[in-house]
């Protein structure tokens, strides 16, 4: 089976994501800045080490960065939802169950 030939070449885009980690014992903060070329989006998250746990900075980095990446995913899904509504999409469901009312 042959596929129709598209009249335009495939789009290739590059988005730049910067992740900034800041440690102030026992807290680690991660800030993400995503530049899509059209928009700049940001998210932040934190991790806090229990005073009873050993001091392993990599764990705080991983937790804070992972949480900030999840938060960025939610930011992107909200942006997509707004864009779909702006163009008159008939989609009635939220694009993801990852949304949380408190964010």
UniProtKB/TrEMBL annotation:
Signal peptide: none annotated. SUPFAM superfamilies: Rv2632c-like. Residues 84-103 are annotated as: Disordered. This is DUF1876 domain-containing protein.
């Amino acid at each position: 089976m042959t596929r129709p030939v598209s009249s335009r070449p495939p789009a290739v885009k590059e988005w730049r994501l910067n992740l900034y980690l800041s440690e102030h014992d026992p807290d680690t903060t991660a800030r993400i800045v995503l530049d899509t070329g059209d928009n700049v989006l940001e998210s932040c998250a934190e991790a806090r080490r229990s005073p009873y746990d050993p001091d392993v900075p990599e764990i705080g980095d991983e937790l804070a960065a992972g949480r900030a990446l999840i938060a960025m995913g939610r930011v992107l899904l909200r942006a997509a939802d707004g864009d779909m509504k702006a163009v008159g999409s008939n989609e009635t469901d939220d694009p993801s169950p990852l949304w949380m009312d408190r964010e």
